[in-house]
Amino acid sequence: MKNRRQPLLSALAVATTLLAACSSTPVAPDAASAKPATAAATTPAAPSARSAAAPSSTVATVVLPPHKDPKHAISTERSVYFAFDDFSVNGRYIDIVERHGRYLQGQAPLAIRIEGHADERGSAEYNLSLGQKRAEAVLRALKLAGAREQQMEAVSYGEERPRQAGHSESAWSENRRADIAYRP
Fold first, then answer.
1. Which of 21, 27, 103, 166 is the S-S candidate for 171 at Cβ 3.0 to 4.6 Å?
2. Ranges of each domain in the chain
């Protein structure tokens, strides 16, 4: 019986050794077989000239212009809202208009399209006309803030591109607007 167990135990010992060698966790050495550390082994080697230089980064830093930066106010605040059946720029939107006007003043090659919108009430023709008046009112305000007329175009979508669907005052107030859209 002893002879039959010997090859099985040998095969088991070899398999255990192979599995331990392939293990992803290091196997701790036995205390008896551990070699004492020498002074040379604990002293770090002097860095070579090649590793002494700091590695240079190959990643380019990307700086987005404000009109393309999703965190910048030029990019996030682009709508001017209007009262029912009105096309005058409300005082609370002057800061937005002036910010865009100053930005355009410093960016001569940039161009924008001011898109006028209306809510669903009124005829299609009336809403197109109202949307155009809203876009032109924002254009005039941007011009006063420093933008050049050659940089701007006023268009109307009337009621065709609502921001919010619905037949309530909250939906209608979202749709009575002029949006500033930067062109590439």
1. 166
2. 77-183
Q: Which residues pair with 154 in a beta bridge?
A: 114
Residue 132: in which H helix or E strand, if any? helix 124-144
Coil, strand, or helix at residue 115?
strand
pLDDT at site 66: 93
Q: What is the DSSP letter of 48?
A: P
What are the b/e assignments for 131-155, b being 16+ CB within 10 Å?
bbbbbbbbbebbbebebeeebbebe
Rounded-to-integer distance, Cα 147 and Cα 101, Å: 5
Helix axis angle, 124-144 to 94-105, nearest 10°: 60
Structurally, what CATH architecture does the domain formed by 77-183 represent?
Answer: 2-Layer Sandwich (3.30)
Give the DSSP H/E element, type plus range, for residue 44: none
In the structure encoding, which two tokens stand for residue 125, read together?
A: 């023709």
In which residue ranges of the chain is pLDDT below 70? 1-54
Give the model confidence (pLDDT) of 152-174 as tens digits.
Answer: 999 999 999 999 999 999 999 99
Number of DSSP helices (H) and strands (E) in the chain, helices first = 7, 4
